Amino acid sequence: MRSILLFCSLLLCSTQLLADWPIGKHRTTLIPTYTYFRSTKYYDSTGKVISFYNGDRFVSNTFSVYLAHGLTRRLDFIANVPLTFVSSSFSGKTSTRSGIADCMAGIAYHFPFKDLKSFVTTKALFIFAPYQNTVEPYLGYGSKGFQLAANYSFNPAPNTFLVTEATYTRYLDDATGPEQFGYNITAGTTFSDYDYLTLAISGITSKSTDKSFYSNLTSIKDFNYGKISLAYGRKISRIATPYIQGFYTFYGKNAGIGVGFSAFVIFKLP
After folding, report:
1. Cβ proximity of 87 and 66 under 8 Å
2. CATH number of the domain encompassing residue 116
3. Is 6 in contact with 12 (CB distance < 8 Å)?
4. What is the residue range of 259's domain?
5. Per-residue pLDDT reduced to its tens digit, 74-96
6. Is 238 exposed, middle or buried, given 0-12, 13-18 or 19+ CB atoms closer than 10 A?
7. Overall domain count for the chain
């Protein structure tokens, strides 16, 4: 279920959007994340909800580490490495696979406004796949690629923040791509000195000349979906803030309907 796996990848990358201010020169942010994902239904090419047959399902458990390190006061190095365990049950047959899925590494440059409370951030990342799609279920497209992104982070009111981001992703090893356009809107608030609440709405539209639809969603390259996420975090020390997050796919075409949760900790070092 390639479209489902891409949904997981987007979720894992979205944690970095909790607030996209500069990390700080020689400072480091680490975000280890565990994500559970389950799908028993999908949106067909018209957006209609279809259940998989006879209890068929797709389940993934993913552990990832996101790293951001400040090279200068405005320039950060960023990277994400996911280790994924997937299980798919279709037509009475269950297949499992595990391995390192699509990795991303690149840079983020922040353009501050005069008040230093709002920033425009641009990103350029390289995508590489340390696996081969020889057996199903696949861990992704198995293709190198790149992603360009830009976002605006600001404080709309005291003790709040808002991040709006647009992304463009292109996979390079196949003439049919795909190329993908994404968005993410994350709003957050602090309702005490230690408690945080964030709400995010994000989505992706994948375009390809290969518009085929398959009951096994493995080969789909032309699709779209949107998801909503709600996260709660509590600061437990100067350097550590753990979060829990739930998410659901609320629209789509040619895409799996996903529900699940994640748990992650934001470590700010030193």
Report:
1. no
2. 2.40.128.130
3. no
4. 2-269
5. 999 999 999 999 888 877 788 88
6. exposed
7. 1
